[in-house]
């Protein structure tokens, strides 16, 4: 049997399997389908699979017509049958990597996926992990599971892959998806790729070069894993810094947003970050803890990461305290007060709840006795999540009459569709955690920035 070299993955008629058809996996699948490859999406959720095969979308910023186009062209389909992994040339793993209750890495999705792949692993297949994780995961967790069937993928130098070609290829290439970003889609974002050995890295680079403008090869899977963490830790630490400065500016009687805007006029050496009610999304609130957990294995304390985590985690508590104080100044108690929370998505204009600070705000407000409703145009209802269950709640109308019936309107997510002038006009009190009302001139006395 002829061994397929890494050049094989430069072909434009490959069969590609993508495990996890969510915010990362689905855009990836559609990009490969757009290049003429035959893409098979794997997911454990039968409802998602049925929708995809009907050409329907369950992600707001991915139009159904994009899915339907490739389904009808027979370039994309989905399945729950993992035995079909044996029929594909490359398998890209895009599954969640959350934290557990102790804020430690939960790699159960990655491990279970590797165990699902292993029985169907074929000689010369390329396996790529895209899920964000700590340095060493691909090499220490995924590789041993995949090798249980007898096929080998030698780590660089064990022996020299130039002498002993790998039986299969294994690489790590971190996702850099930013849901809802209209300026940078998947194809415009450089793709970092690190292989277990040089042939694996080259195979993955050849594959991704077909859908992205630039591939950035690195020397190992560990470097690629660390690069992704650095990107998100950079943001986490800087957001924590500006959140702390926000609290200081409030105490000193200054507007932090004015301070940031003026500092941002410097054309070099400064990058603006903005405060908020807490961290949200699939990366920044989670990924730093993956590195701090791994660092303990080396007797190393990641003090910046841990301090940033403490500050960012405290922000929802600060916001709820600001609501309580604002109500108190109006001779109203938080307990029993009617609160309308505007926006539950983790950032504006997307239908993504992952790690949204709004969920923590809701928990804290309810625990302190508030009578809470929410409005979000992207979420008519909420579902049960890993740490929260608001499945009984439904988005309420935010018309002027409704707004005026609440003791406080809390802006948690600054969706573009909200008419902030109308909101301030109608509401008795607005607590704004996003500076969404910065252009509102009337009734400034109603607004509390926090």
Structure, explained:
The protein is of the alpha/beta class and 450 residues long. The protein folds into two domains: 6-219, Rossmann fold (3-Layer(aba) Sandwich); 244-449, Rossmann fold (3-Layer(aba) Sandwich), CATH 3.40.50. It contains 13 helices and 13 strands. It has helices spanning 25-34, 46-53, 64-72, 108-117, 137-146, 198-208, 221-252, 256-263, 287-295, 303-329, 357-367, 400-404, 420-426; strands at 15-19, 38-42, 76-79, 90-93, 126-129, 169-172, 191-195, 215-218, 338-342, 371-375, 408-411, 430-432, 447-449. The strands form two sheets. An eight-stranded mixed sheet has the order 3-2-1-4-5-6-7-8, with helices on both faces. Helix 7 runs parallel beside helix 10 (303-329) and helix 10 crosses helix 11. The model has no long low-confidence stretch (mean pLDDT 94).
In short:
This protein is α/β, with parallel strands linked by helices and 450 residues long.
Please identify the top-level CATH class of the largest domain. Answer: Alpha Beta
Number of helices: 13
Radius of gyration: 24 Å
Structural class: alpha/beta
Count structural domains: 2
- Order of strands across the biggest sheet? 3-2-1-4-5-6-7-8
For the secondary structure, the number of strands is 13
Residue windows where pLDDT falls under 50 for at least 5 positions: none
| Portion in strands | 5-15%
| CATH arch. level architecture of the largest domain | 3-Layer(aba) Sandwich
């Amino acid at each position: 049997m002829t061994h397929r070299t890494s050049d094989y993955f430069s072909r434009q008629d490959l069969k590609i399997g993508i495990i996890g058809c969510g915010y990362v996996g689905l855009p990836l699948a559609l990009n490969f389908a757009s290049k003429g490859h035959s893409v098979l999406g794997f997911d454990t959720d039968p409802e998602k699979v049925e929708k995809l095969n009907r050409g329907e979308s369950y992600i707001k910023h991915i139009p159904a017509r994009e899915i339907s186009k490739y389904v009808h062209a027979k370039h994309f389909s989905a399945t729950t049958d993992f035995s079909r992994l044996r029929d594909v040339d490359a398998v890209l793993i895009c599954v969640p990597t959350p934290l557990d209750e102790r804020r430690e890495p939960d790699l159960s999705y990655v491990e279970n996926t590797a165990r699902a792949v292993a029985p169907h692993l074929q000689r010369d297949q390329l396996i790529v992990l895209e899920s964000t994780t700590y340095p060493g995961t691909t090499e220490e967790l995924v590789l041993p599971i995949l090798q249980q069937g007898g096929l080998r993928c030698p780590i660089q130098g064990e022996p020299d892959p130039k002498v002993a070609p790998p039986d299969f290829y294994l690489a790590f290439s971190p996702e850099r998806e930013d849901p809802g970003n209209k300026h940078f889609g998947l194809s415009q974002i450089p793709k970092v790729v690190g292989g277990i050995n040089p042939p694996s890295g080259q195979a993955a680079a050849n594959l991704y070069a077909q859908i992205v403008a630039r591939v950035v090869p690195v020397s190992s899977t560990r470097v690629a894993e660390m690069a992704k963490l650095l990107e998100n830790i950079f943001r986490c630490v800087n957001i924590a810094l500006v959140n702390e400065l926000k609290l200081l500016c409030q105490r000193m009687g200054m507007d932090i947003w004015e301070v940031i805007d003026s500092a941002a006029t410097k054309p070099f050496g400064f990058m603006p970050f903005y405060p908020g009610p807490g961290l949200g999304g699939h990366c920044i609130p989670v990924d730093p803890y993956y590195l701090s957990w791994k660092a303990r294995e080396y007797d190393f304390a990641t003090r910046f990461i841990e301090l940033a985590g403490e500050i960012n985690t405290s922000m929802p508590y600060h916001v709820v305290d600001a609501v309580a104080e604002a109500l108190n100044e109006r001779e109203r108690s938080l307990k029993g007060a009617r609160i309308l929370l505007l926006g539950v998505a983790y950032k504006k204009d997307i239908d993504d709840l992952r790690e949204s600070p709004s969920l923590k705000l809701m928990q804290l407000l309810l625990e302190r006795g508030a009578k809470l409703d929410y409005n979000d145009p992207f979420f008519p209802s909420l579902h049960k999540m890993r740490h929260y269950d608001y499945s009984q709640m439904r988005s309420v109308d935010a018309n002027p009459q409704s707004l005026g019936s609440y003791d406080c309107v809390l802006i948690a997510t600054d969706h573009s569709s909200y008419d902030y002038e109308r909101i301030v006009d109608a509401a008795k009190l607005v607590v704004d955690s996003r500076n969404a009302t910065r252009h509102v001139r009337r009734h400034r006395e109603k607004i509390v920035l926090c």
